[in-house]
Design a protein that fits this description.
The chain starts with a helix and ends with a strand. The relative contact order is 0.09. It folds into three domains: 1-35; 93-183, no CATH class; 187-276, no CATH class. The chain has eight helices and ten strands. The protein is of the alpha+beta class. Helix 7 (142-160) runs antiparallel to helix 8 (165-183).
């Protein structure tokens, strides 16, 4: 009896693997489809999440496909790489003024504008605010106007653009030449004032009038002088100093147009015949 029981157990132990093999062969086409639907397998306390693993696998395949589609970049060797840099201006306005040359230009250019404004201020012509160099040049003699025409565009480039040091030097030299010329130009302030032979202003000189001319003194300060003349001038006329020694006057006074006071004019002077520039 015991031998029969042992035989049945042996047959049973061999029968279930045979059934499994039969089922695998019989349903071999459907099994993969079924496995795709399985997302979790567990045995006791151990489990495997097949769905998460499948997601990771699909993501890896997608990344590999993208990598294959992208062009391959080949890095150049450091020694063969050429770096092109935009060249910066040699000297821009903010840095230019920190140099001796820049400061020299600023002083000369500022003085030029101030002196031109002084020369044109006595012309009695209407002015609308601050005038440019070219606007002031319209009322100046041709020789000075020509220098301003050369200086104005160069000055604008230096002030408003980045320029080379040699351009600043060129502009500075031209400004200093122009400044030296305009400082030497006499300008008529008052073209006709009464002259007297006495300090009380009682004895008027009938044969001559006085012309008040302004020039710059040794300390670059405006100085006014009164000359006797028989010629007619206008306020703002720029002159070339000239004199005629055939006529002369001794101790003479004049009436100041600004204060109406009688002031000393000169001890001796020949006739002033200055020419308009």
């Amino acid at each position: 009896m015991s031998s029969v029981s042992e035989l049945l157990r042996a047959i049973a132990s061999l029968l279930w693997p045979a059934i499994v093999i039969y089922l695998l062969i019989r349903y071999r086409a459907e099994i993969p489809k079924l496995l795709k639907r399985v997302t979790h397998i567990s045995a006791g306390n151990v489990g495997v999440d097949l769905g998460k693993a499948e997601e990771i696998r699909q993501e890896q395949k997608a990344q590999e496909a993208i990598a294959e589609a992208l062009p391959v970049e080949v890095a150049e060797a450091p020694e063969s790489r050429t770096v092109v840099r935009e060249e910066e201006p040699r000297l821009t306005p903010p840095t230019a003024w920190d140099t001796d040359l820049g400061n020299r230009f600023l002083r000369a250019a500022t003085e030029v504008e101030r002196e031109l404004a002084r020369l044109t201020a006595y012309s009695r012509r209407p002015q609308s605010g601050r005038e440019s160099l070219r606007q002031m040049a319209k009322h100046l003699p041709p020789d000075i106007r020509s220098l301003i025409d050369d200086f104005a565009p160069l000055r604008n480039r230096v002030v408003h653009m980045g320029v080379e040091p040699d351009e600043i030097e060129q502009a500075t030299e031209l400004a200093e030449v122009l400044l030296d010329i305009v400082r030497r130009v006499p300008v008529v302030v008052y073209p006709q004032v009464e002259l007297y032979a006495d300090d009380l202003g009682l004895e008027t000189r009938r044969d001559v009038v006085g012309v008040v001319v302004e020039t710059l003194g040794d300390e670059d300060r405006p100085e006014r002088r009164v000359f006797p003349t028989t010629l007619k001038y206008d306020a703002g006329d720029l002159l070339v100093l000239d004199f005629d020694s055939r006529r002369s006057w001794e101790h003479t006074w004049y009436r100041d147009p600004e204060t109406s006071d009688v002031k000393f004019a000169f001890g001796y002077s020949v006739e002033f015949t200055g020419r308009k520039r």
